[in-house]
Amino acid sequence: MALKIERATDGDAERIAAMLGEIEHYYGGAAEAADVTQVRRALFGPQPAATVLLAREGEEVAGLASVSFLWPAAGAETSLYLKELFVREPYRRRGVARELMSAVQAEARAAGCTRVEWTADRDNPPALALYDALGVEPNGGKIFYRSQV
Asked: What is the pLDDT, as a whole number, of residue 141?
């Protein structure tokens, strides 16, 4: 597979919106595309909330990784937070997730980050197996919280 991983641009907003629907469906929700205007504002507006890396095979998007900076990480250091790693169904088990993880690590190094952090759902065995295969140990020192605003 000849994968190319690159940062998403405004021209990818519709594809990203569709993939957000695929992600929602993967986790048991409705398979509806996200609002393209919201995607554009979040990723390409005056205050981008995240950077999206897209894995492409030719013209097709195979997967994505969404990352944001966290500060402070330790002291005044910065970390890169992987919010979403998703590989579309036809591309799973073909090394796409590994390539995206490698690209995330490269993004972190290029930005001067000291680490990459992420969470994984306990009921997502493929993701947990990937992280185990990458040699990454779970960090049991944190408890994840979520609040609605």
From this structure: 86
Tell me if 67 is assigned to some domain: yes
Q: What is the pLDDT of residue 115?
A: 94
Q: Pairing relation of β-strands 79-87 and 115-118?
A: parallel
Residue 115 host element (H or E): strand 115-118
pLDDT digits (tens, 9 = 90+) for 20-43: 999 999 999 998 999 999 999 999
- pTM greater than 0.85: yes
Contact 69, 77 (CB under 8 A): no
Cα separation values, 125 from 40, 81, 132, Å: 32, 21, 10
Residue 148 lies in a domain: no
* Residues paired with residue 86 on neighbouring β-strands, in sequence order: 64
Helix (H) or strand (E) holding 106: helix 96-110
Q: Is residue 56 part of a domain?
A: yes
For residues 117 and 82, the answer to whether their CB atoms sit within 8 Å is: yes
Range of the domain at 46: 3-133
Structural domains in the chain (count):
1
Residues of the chain with pLDDT under 70: 1
Query: Residue 84 is part of a domain; what is its CATH number?
Result: 3.40.630.30
